[in-house]
Every structure is written in C-alpha cells, then in structure tokens.
Amino acid sequence: MNYTFKRGVLLIAALFFVLSACEQKSEDAGSEFSIDFEKYTLDNGLEVVLHKDNSDPMVAVSVLYHVGSNREKPGKTGFAHFFEHMLFQNSENVGAGNFIKTMNDLGGSFNGGTWTDGTVYFETVPSDALEKVLWMESDRMGFFINTVSEWGLENEKQVVKNEKRQGVDNRPYGHKQYVQLVNLYPEGHPYSWDVIGSLEDLQNATIEDVKEFYEKWYGVNNATLVIAGDIDEEEAKAYVEKYFGELEPRAEVEAIKPWPATLETSKLLYHEDKFANVPDLHMLWPTVEKYHPDMWALDLLGQVLTDGKNSPLYKVVVEEKKLAPRVSTYNSSNEIAGTFNITARAFDGVNLNDLKAAFMEGFAKFEADGVSESDLDRIKIGLETSLYNAASSVFNKAYQMADYNTFTGDPGYFKKDLENSMKLTSEDIMRVYNKYIKGKNFLATSFVPAGQKELVLEGSEKASVVEEAIVQGAEGNLDQYDKDVKFEKTASKIDRSQAPPLNGELSFTPPSIAKESLSNGMQVYHIYQDELPMAQFSIRIKGGMFLDDPNKIGTAALLDNMLMEGTANKTPSELEEAIGQLGANVFVSTSREYITISGNCLAKNYEKVLALVEEIVTEPRWDEAEFERIKSSALNSIQQSGANPNAIASRIFNEVLYGEDHIFANPVSGTMNSVSGITLDDLKAYYEKNFSPSLASFHFVGALNKEDVVNSLSIFSDWEAKDVDFPSYEIKTKDDGSRIYFVDYPDAKQSVLNIGRVSMAGDNKDYAAATMANYRLGAGSGSILFRKLRLEKGYTYGAYSNYGRQLNGTTFTAASSVRSNVTKESVQLFKEILDNYGDEFSEEDMEATKTSILRSNTQSYETLGSLVGILQNISTYDLPLDYVQKDETTLKSMDVNEAKRLISEYMNPDDLIYVVVGDGKTQLNRLNNLGLGKPIVVNKDKDKLTIDK
C-alpha cells in the first residue's frame, strides 16, 4: 500500500481525453476518440461513475475518499496513510485477512494509496467478480470499525514503520522531502509534514484515534466510486444500490481552502547523509494549488526548461558545465498549495554552489532565448500519444475519473485539462516564470555525503532530521495481544454474511499471433489490436551483457545509451527532435542476455518512427562528446548504487551464486573499475561483432495488419547477418549446501535479505510449472511469505519469491527488507517456511494456485505493453506461439506430487544461499546458530567479493 500518490504519479499526468457524459448523452463527441461515462449520486451522497469498456473481460473499481494527510492534526501525523493500511485488515462480514486472500483467489490485482489530498483503493478483477468486489468495498466502508483490535493496531504500526524505514530512513536522500516540507510551510500548515508522518505519532496512535478518523472522514458522502470495464450498466447500478445504498451519510466535510506557501526570505538547509555517495541540490519556489489558472503554464514551464538536449538547463548544467548527468524541473500542484522544483544529483565532489550558479545561468539563457515554437509543439504533440497509452488500461481510467470527480466535481474534466494545456503560448509560459520564479525567494536543500559539508550551499543551516535508533525489542511482542476481537455485527437490510457468487461464465479468446521470417534472419511476431489507433513495437537482439568482454563489463549498457545519441544522418539533437515531433517514445535498454529497442507511437506515425529506429540500429553516430557524457553519467549511477543496500545485496548475492568468474557475477552496468576503462572503440567493436539481424526479433502490436508491418521492415534489408560467437561460463556457487553471508552497512535501519540458488536454464521445460509451484510461497500478497512476515509478524513491508528467467542460469530468489532489530527472527522464519514448504504443500494450495493463475491471465492481454511482452517471451525463450494456453494446460493437469517434485528439485532448501545486508554492530552476532554456519562477512566496498577474516 503506497503513500506517494500525487498528480501524475500513475503516469497519467498527461492523460487527457475528450469525453461525452452519458447524463448529457452527447450526440457527437467531436473527436476521433471519446470515453462515455455516466455519473449519478445515491441518496446518501455517494457519487458514482460508470464507464463501459468491453474490450477485455475485466473490470476496475476505484474508491477515492477525500481525505489525505492534509486533514490530519499536528501530533497525529501519518494517520491517513496508516488508516489506509488498517482498512485492508478486517471488516465484519468479509473477515480478518479475507480481503487480501479473496482478491488473490479471484486472480485480481489491488492496492491502495494515500497522498496529501486523498486516499484511494482500487481493484482490477475478471468481470464476473464485480459483485463480490463491491460487497467487499462496501463492507469496509460501512462495516469496518467494530473489527479493530489492539493486535491489529499494533501489527499495522510495525508494517507502516517498516515502510518508512525502507522508503525514507534506509535510502539515500530519503529525508529530503521532510526537510523541505517542515521548512517551506509554517507550523500547523496541512503540508508541513510528510505523508508517512512521524514514527512517534504513529506509535502513539490508539483505537480511539482510529474510530475518530473513520467516523469523520470515511463517510459514504465523502467518497467517489468509479466502475470501469466490462460491465452491464444497469446490473452495476443494482449492485451499487444493493451494497452501498443503505450506508448512512456522516457529517458534511468542510471544504479545505487554498493556502499557498510564502517565503519572506530564501531558506538554505543542508544534511550530511550517511547513505549518500554524491551531492544533491534541490531548489523549490512556492506556486499555486491544483487547477489554479496558472497551473498548466507552470507544468509546461517544467518541461520547457529541462526536456530535451536543446533545453536551457540541460545545455548549461549537463552539456557545458558537466556538473551533473541530468537535471530536472517540474511543477507540483496539490489541493491547497504547490511548488516549482529544480533538482540535480551532481557528480562526485561537485560544489553545490557551482551547481546553483549553473541553474541561474540556465534561467538566464531561458530568459534570453524564450520558448521556441518547435519545443512547444513537440510537448503538445506528445500529449496525444500519452492520451492513448493511458487509455489502454481500465485501471488508469477508473483512477483518473475518481480523481477528477473528487477535485473538480467532473469525471470528464479530461477535456478541459487538455484544452488548458493546448491553448498555452510561449508568452504564457514566460509570464508564470516571471511571476513565480525569477527573483523570488526559494528554499534549497543540500544533501551531501557524510564528511563533505564543504560542498553545501553557502549560508546553509543544518537541517533537523529525526533518525531512529536500532533497539532490540523496541516494538514489543505482538503475542501479548489477542488477535480476535469480539463484536456485535452491525444490522443490515440485506444478508451480507456470505460472499456473493461469481456472475456468469468467464471466457476469453487470446489474440491471434502471427510469425514471419525476413531474408536476413530477423524473426517477426505480430498481433493485430485496433482498440486504439496505436502501434507498439520492439527489436530485441540477443547478447546483452553476456557478450561483454569480461574485462570491460558495462560495454553493452553504455552502448544502449549511445544508440540514442544521433545517427549517421542526424545529430543527437536532431534525432531527439524528430522523435518528439512525431509524439513518439523510443528507448533502448540492456539486460544480461539481450538489448531491446522499443517504440511507441500513433499508428499513423508508425512508418516514420520505424525509419528513425532503423537509423538508430544500423547507422550509429558514435559521437565522442556524447560518449564522454554517457560514461560520466554511468559512473555517477554506479557510485550512487554503492550506497543503496538493495543494490549491494543484489551484487553480492549474484557473485556468491554464480562465482566470481561468471559474467553474471557483475552488475549489468559494470563497476567503477570496468567502466572507467571502456572506450568508444570498445562500443564500436561490440556493435560490429554482435549486432546481427540473425539474433534479432521484431515484435509488433497495434492497429496495422501483418502484411503492412512485414512490408515496412524492408528498410532493414541491407542489415547483413553475421556469425556471433557466444562464450561459455561455468556456474560455480561459492559453497555446497546452505550458507549465510553478511554485509555490514553501519546504522542500517532495515536489513535486506536475499535467499536463493541458481535453479535451471531458462529454456527448461519445467520452468512454467516451477513458477506455478512457487505461487503460494511468494507470488504476491496472498503468499505464505507475505502473510507470515508482514501480516502476522509485522517484520516487513513485503516478502516475495520468484524465478528470474534467463537462458544462462535462472535463479530462484526469496527476498525482503526487514526492520533491523528482527533480522535474526526474519532469517529464522524464512528458513522455517522454505524448509517446510514442499512437505506442507497441500491439495488446497494446488487448487488455489490453479484458480488464481488461470483467472489472473485475463489481465495478460489488456495493454499494448503486456502483449509485446508475450511476443518477447516467445522469441527470447523459443516458446510456442500459444505458450500461455499451453502453460494453462500444464497448470490444470498439475497435482500435489508434481508440485512437490518441482519444489524439491528447483528450490531445495538444503542448497539455498542467504545474503544479509544490515547493521553489523547490532545484528551480526545474532545470526550465529541458525543452522547456516557462522556468517561469512563480506566487504561491500570492493568490486569483487572479498571475505573479511
């Protein structure tokens, strides 16, 4: 459950639609794209929005309560987010833990989120489960509060504390937002604390606090319910009335008024961050609240200043001064106040006074040059692509309609939102810059590595940051509380005691997949999908990091960036502009075993975008200046990862599993030593040796037929195939049998646990069945690991297990980040679960696995991206075109004995390696005598695994 929801966090800040509301039943939508919806209000005040989309047999439900952290009281901070967690625990008729269990059994996805201004709960399920979901949502809206227990309260406190430690206390720069908020807003301002709140406030929360919050803010008349997807509108209305209609309204919630921040003078704060490796500068200016008339111009100002190689701040900070690998500007407008932000994480040793001076120089360049019409056009053109991309998901539509309805009163505010951006001129953007930024007071935070205070802005004051001490037993023992709470059920006009049955037969026909081969050996995979006028495609070339020179790990990763830096016919800026003017997205990524070039655009622009991709793939520019920038940026990222406990755990884990001589013992990005020695000629050599159409597959999903797509690929006819030699690496796990390795990360507030082994090759015929056998163990919130470590013990925010598919050594991994003072207990519990999973796997587990996976597969085909992913799996692992259906057949025929065989063979508990990254002075000695031998201490600051004697 998340606490970082803001405008645009779901990648729908630019989600703009033209809608026709069913209440008005517009005769002509006036656009080639429209979304119909109906809004109505129940007698009790619940606002309901329905949107029908029968393209897939699934439905999304979103319930948004108009209460966020801005409704909290000083001394009770973090309560909105904490209450969001509590609502997943229990309700009178659904029962303790059954919301999560039922959602998983239904094959659904779900979550909740809290931000400054609201709290949202959402589910996406096969459409036959709509009534059941509405039964559950109404039960926690109207029949929750009597079920709250001391055990539930104390357990969830630990879960939320773990979330804070994981996302704030144990993360580089994690305290930055807190420092900004408490210094930007006056004491008592609703934004003067962060959403996660204070651990002290959280620990002091009582059941009476929970009841007060519920009664005041969780009334049916303070909520919006949106149902989007494969529905019958009249049936949906009947369900809504049945389950929500009898809920009594609460006292009317008073509207909260805008309260923008004001700064009488500029404020400069600094913090020496023990988890940071490079300096970070963040400056912000008070702006306007959400939907203020100036918001849209401020949003576009953020894009104009740093979006693209010709943007003024990129030119100065990145290209000319070379002070940071990237710089970002953005406007953030919330319900009652907003800020305009500029931030950059500098290169090692950069004085932040120099970075600030570069920011100001970039502003001066912007003032002198103004906003070019081509840049403004490019930004606006991109909105159309964003529109369709977001519309491919019923979840996105349900969430955004709920958000618009809550904060504007109109679920169809999409149209006005778009219009307000599209009508902006360069003069509008310069006006808001002069009004809110130029010469105005600001707040600046300098976060620097510990011991590097000399890098902070001159005149900065030390920020106050609350750091929690690691104390054994500080949280107490949950066993002292009774898990069961006795209560008298609330009366209802209907029988809510039994879950409603699934409605109708769930049926789905997967899309047809076609395959062709080009004369140069490139394989072509195609799915026709015309729900939206879009095209999404990728070229995947086998090799990736696996073909790196072992002495120059990171070459492929540098190459993926280099490919986007111009072509033989286009400078880097010209290539970027050409892509932008088509409203397209093109990017390159590298993994251990392949490089992927991906494109997304309107179908009408497909051939023009493909022509640019062909240039990128076959005619790299090899720009020396861009290479030096890319290399510097890569080294900066590697240096930052050295301060990230999760990255450290992953690096050590892989080296232990594969052995130090295996290529996969290294990060894909390489190390500081390996990348420092890579030259542009190394990239050219990798490209000439390993880029071949015979290793490439083209994957297309969209509104173009197969013949047109195959014909379009004739532009690759001159790309000649070559023989590529693949090396052979022997996997040499460090030890036979289970062992535990420990990496000391002083003062870590969380311990990162990685447990696993190399299990099989990725093309093993047992792979699909093995992932199914893992499902009950660690695949999501319904798993045993999640239930025992989070829901029952409160040790962690989440615990999971999975198979990481690779042709050259697929790993089985179980992992979590747990609070430091239960490191030993968490390792013990992991070991107990893993030791017993095979023996205890039951018929009930087998049936639950079958039901959940088979139902969840209905979501596998919804978006263009998910469909391209299916095609990529087929080409990468040489799977049959109907592998999803074949996997379903395998699952249906599986029995308990087969599951136990797979568990024993591929996740054998006697062969699992344990890696722990945590605070050595408090946790190391506690890890003796766990049946894993004495912990082997590893030095985290070496490129290669070194054992501390």
Automatic annotation (TrEMBL):
Family annotation (Gene3D superfamilies): Metalloenzyme, LuxS/M16 peptidase-like
Entry annotated with the keyword DNA-binding: no
Signal peptide, first to last residue: 1-21
Lineage: superkingdom: Bacteria
InterPro entries documented for this protein: Metalloenz_LuxS/M16, MPP/UQCRC_Complex, Pept_M16_N, Peptidase_M16_C
One Pfam match: Peptidase_M16_C
Swiss-Prot/TrEMBL keywords: Signal
Peptidase M16 C-terminal domain: residues covered: 205-382, 678-851
Name the UniProt record assigns to this protein: Peptidase M16
Organism: Roseivirga misakiensis
